[in-house]
UniProtKB/TrEMBL annotation:
<dbReference type="InterPro" id="IPR036393">
    <property type="entry name" value="AceGlu_kinase-like_sf"/>
</dbReference>
<dbReference type="GO" id="GO:0016301">
    <property type="term" value="F:kinase activity"/>
</dbReference>
<keyword id="KW-0418">Kinase</keyword>
<keyword id="KW-0808">Transferase</keyword>
<dbReference type="InterPro" id="IPR001048">
    <property type="entry name" value="Asp/Glu/Uridylate_kinase"/>
</dbReference>
<dbReference type="Pfam" id="PF00696">
    <property type="entry name" value="AA_kinase"/>
</dbReference>
<feature type="domain" description="Aspartate/glutamate/uridylate kinase">
    <location>
        <begin position="2"/>
        <end position="142"/>
    </location>
</feature>
<protein>
    <submittedName>
        <fullName>Uridylate kinase</fullName>
    </submittedName>
</protein>
Length: 215
């Protein structure tokens, strides 16, 4: 099982529809897409600044923003289906569907998850990967990865320092069983053969296009 986080910043880029087409084609119920918050989360930040509401409420609204972006993805590609609970995730998997996770229901039910802006869709994708026992987590990023050119791996702490992932991300990755990878949004062609052969070992998954995250 793979968890693939698609950053909200992909909205409006030609790569987004290509990622969705590829994931629908190869999913077979074994790939779960985690949506970012996109413009909907940006609106929550602005609303919080103007209203002064608490981080806890803003966290709730940001989760709904992820739900909205997830629903939007199904409008872009009708081959996608949504799931908002572990049961629905399992059912969609049994049906061999391409799944978009709507996180608000499951995340709000877990009081252990911090209710602030330090926990974003990055951390929640790692939380989900642990929750469902996924073997691998893939983060698709819009920010250039040129600083890691010609590398096949990158330290987790480096990603945090470079603001490629949120500051809480390492807490959700350490001592977990899944392996984590990072890829730029333009390299979907490099990812398709990897996802199509999900039993490849970690050494063969990593390449100059897909970075293995060292914990």
């Amino acid at each position: 099982m793979w968890v693939v986080k698609l950053g909200g910043s992909l909205l409006g880029s030609p790569e987004l529809s290509r990622w969705l087409e590829m994931l629908v084609k190869i999913s077979d119920g074994k790939v779960i897409i985690v949506p970012g918050g996109s413009v909907f989360a940006d609106a929550v930040r602005v609303a919080q600044q103007r209203s002064g509401v608490s981080d806890a409420l803003a966290h709730h609204l940001a989760l709904l923003a992820m739900d909205q972006f997830g629903l939007l993805l199904t409008g872009i590609n009708p081959g996608l289906v949504t799931a908002s609970s572990e049961l629905e995730l399992a059912e969609r998997g049994w049906q061999h569907r391409a799944i978009v996770w709507l996180p608000s229901k499951m995340v709000l039910a877990d009081d252990a998850i911090a209710k602030n802006w330090q926990v974003t869709s990055d951390s929640l994708s790692a939380w989900l990967a642990h929750k469902i026992g996924a073997e691998r987590l893939l983060l698709v990023k819009s920010k250039p990865l040129s600083d890691y050119a010609n590398s096949t791996s990158v330290l987790l702490q480096t990603l945090v320092q470079d603001a490629l992932v949120d500051v809480a991300f390492s807490d959700y990755c350490l001592e977990q069983r899944f392996q984590t990878y990072v890829v730029h949004k333009t390299n979907y062609a490099a990812v398709e053969p990897i996802l199509s052969k999900r039993r490849m070992d970690d050494a063969s998954v990593a390449s100059e296009h897909v970075l293995l995250v060292d914990y």
